[in-house]
Every structure is written in structure tokens, then in C-alpha cells.
# Entry
Amino acid sequence: MIKELFLAIVIGAILGFGLTGGYLTFRQKNQTPKIATISQPTIIPTPTTTTVSTTVNNQEVIDKKITIISPEDNLLVFKDSLNIKGNTSKNSQIIINTSTQNFSGQSDQNGIFDIPITLDGGLNIIKISAIDSQGNQIDTEINVTFSTTKI
# Structure
């Protein structure tokens, strides 16, 4: 009795695996291949130098600009602190906004500024605004990614 039971189990397993393997092979041959879609984020570059021009007596004069010297746009960093260095009009009030924090500073007599900020994990969209002594404002934006991954 045990021999017959064992023989029935073995024959059933062989038939089961054979039918399943045949079905999967048949299905795989008759299926159209699927094209793999790779999705990557689109990076839209933003200018790191912004200028505003005004017209005086039908002549265009570029008189206000903000240039970010450091960091470069779309930078990947591994520290949560960073200095924003740049150049703008002299003695301008500099305001730096991230999604969660605000920082401020002042440009010197040459228009140079260096303001320390702290970053959040992930992508940080940093908006830098300069307001000169006449109240004119110019803005620019950079993206910095802070990776919290330990290497």
C-alpha cells in the first residue's frame, strides 16, 4: 500500500510539474515582449545670474544683478550646512529662503556676500533675493540636494 501511495505521489508531481512547465513555456512564447520604461526626473536648469534692465532716455542700462559664485546649481552635498557666496549691488540686504527656513545677511561695499545656511534632507530649492538701498529687488534660484546617505 505504501509503495502505491509513493508511486502515485511521484507520478502526480511529475505530471504537475510537466503541465505547469509546458503552460508557462507556451505562454511566454506567445506573449508580446514588454518594453521597459525607465523614468527619470527632468532637471530644468535655472539661471544663477539674474539681471534686471531699466530704460533711461531710450537707452537700456543694466544696473542690477545677482551672481551666485558658490554653490553651483544642481549640486549634491553630504553636509547639512552650506555657505551661499555671491555678488550683487553694494550694501544690499540679502534674503535666502528654503522651503522651511529663512536666512538674511548684507553685501559689503563691493557687493560681495557670504551667508551660511542649513539644508534639509533631499532637494532644497534655494531662493536668493537682493534688495538694494533704493528698494529694488532682484531674485534668483538654485537647487542643492543634501544626501543623508552614509557612504
